[in-house]
Amino acid sequence: MPTTTWGYRAAIRFGSTLAPALGLLYPKIRAGDQGRREAGDRLLEWARWNRDPRRPLAWFHAASVGEGLQAEIVIRDLRHLRPDCQVIYTHFSPSAEELARRLEVDAAEYLPYDLQPAIDRLLAGLEPDLLVFSKLDVWPELATRAATTGTQVAIVAGTVSPGSGRLRWPARILLEPGYQAVTAAAAISAEDAERLVRLGVPEDRICVLGDPRFDSVAERVSAVAVDEPLLQFGRGAPTMVAGSTWPPDEAVLLGAFARLRRRRPDARLIVVPHEPTTRHLDALERRAKAAGLPEPVRLSKAPGPVPLLVVDRTGALAALYGAGAMGYVGGGFGRAGLHSVLEPAAWTIPVAFGPRWHDSRDAALLLHSGAAVALPPMPMGRAVRALETLWGNWLDDEAGRQAQGQRAREVVERGLGASQRSAEMLTQLISSRPLRRSPIAARSALRSAQ
User: Fold this and answer.
1) What is the pLDDT of residues 102-157, one digit of tens each?
2) Is the distance from CB of 276 to CB of 296 less than 8 angstroms?
3) Is 97 exposed, middle or buried (CB count within 10 Å of its CB: 0-12, 13-18, 19+)?
4) How far is CA 427 from the centre of its chain?
5) How confident is the model at residue 442 (pLDDT cuts 50, 70, 90)?
6) N or C terminus of the chain: which is more exposed, having fewer CB within 10 Å?
7) Residue 52, C-beta contacts closer than 8 angstroms, at least 6 positions apart
């Protein structure tokens, strides 16, 4: 059975020791550190009163919101196949707290630091039958110690971008034991399967089942009611909805919008920043004013459709793409990384994004199908002119724009079904193993862990 290296354990101890000091400078790190230090006790308290040793327990872990959404749809299908299963969910990023609170699980928490004593204590108390990592966020101590106790270790939505730092030294060496402990992995593509092998997952334990993200996105879009108030902001004129934007995206968007309005004053833009902080919103409004654009109106104060709407809260993007005739997805300029292009595609609208899209399989699928356009790299003036031209073409050629949007929707539809296949794989893993202890023995183990 693989075990973690001394180098990995030293790195985790150093990181967990350093986190409180970094938290003084970075609120997000502080929130995560505080959540992780108390999470183990809260999970053990849940187990003390709620863990039923007569029922299997599946423990899902996802790093942040995107991975959590992929896990959510698989959890739902697993519960349908195995309604007797208890499910707990852990996450790493503070941004996933809101998602964790609404998941249909028995308990949701931060993942404690990946330190052996804490992990052993948690595994002894919870006794999970199945440990599932979503996408790539495999924690070696947790994976190897779980495998040692007889827990089945799995990956769903297995994705490894070609440029992932995990493929390079020293990360690959430090993380390899965790991947070697995997019992079964569901990769989203053959290329991702090959890269999982490079990380250490045994080749004969990998199957290609597709990406549950397609099922998740299609379900979220279909759940938006026809009378959803957010949809009104796209009525009356063709609207560009720009989602998950960062300042480099907004510089290109506002520049192109200012040029476009000289000949198409009816054009509208909705900007949904990835992090709608007061500082970000204020800076965006200053840039709009400098570009000579109409004064931006924040969503919280908007009475209805306006030329330039700025969204000042989270959780609205999935519905707002439905208000658009065309979409822009942020992160393709700068270093943030391209965000999900599937939501606008699921709304049957064409998509534009910046030049740094190559780590996104979904973007490649849309481009290959003629359903999206990648803008050229900086200098900014070149990107601004390209977006203005594309935007104008979409406004002038409604039939062409709709055909491109239909191709985008077809890409989403071809990807459906991965969630069900992944849940079936997990069900087989659960069914292949008996209960390890009697209820009396399990309760004794929990008291010892606490």
Assistant:
1) 999 999 999 999 999 999 999 999 999 999 999 989 999 999 999 999 999 999 99
2) no
3) middle
4) 23
5) very low
6) N
7) 86
CATH number for 6-210+417-449 (one of 3.40.50.720, 3.40.50.300, 3.40.50.1010, 3.40.50.11720): it is: 3.40.50.11720
Residue 109 near residue 130, CB atoms below 8 Å:
no
Burial of 228 (0-12, 13-18, 19+ CB in 10 A): middle
First to last CA, the chain: 26
- What mean pLDDT value characterizes the chain? 92
Confidence at residue 433, expressed as pLDDT on a 0 to 100 scale: 61
pLDDT tens digits, 273-322: 998 999 999 999 999 999 999 999 999 999 999 999 999 998 899 999 99
**CB-CB contact of 50 with 41 (8 Å):** no
CB atoms within 10 A of CB 295: 10
220-413 CATH choice from 3.10.180.10, 3.40.50.2000, 3.40.1000.10, 3.90.1150.10: 3.40.50.2000
Please tell me the distance from the alpha carbon of residue 320 to that of residue 288, in angstroms, as a whole number.
Answer: 21
Nearest to 182 by CA among 222, 140, 228, 215: 140
Residue 443 confidence (pLDDT): 47
Contact 89, 124 (CB under 8 A): no
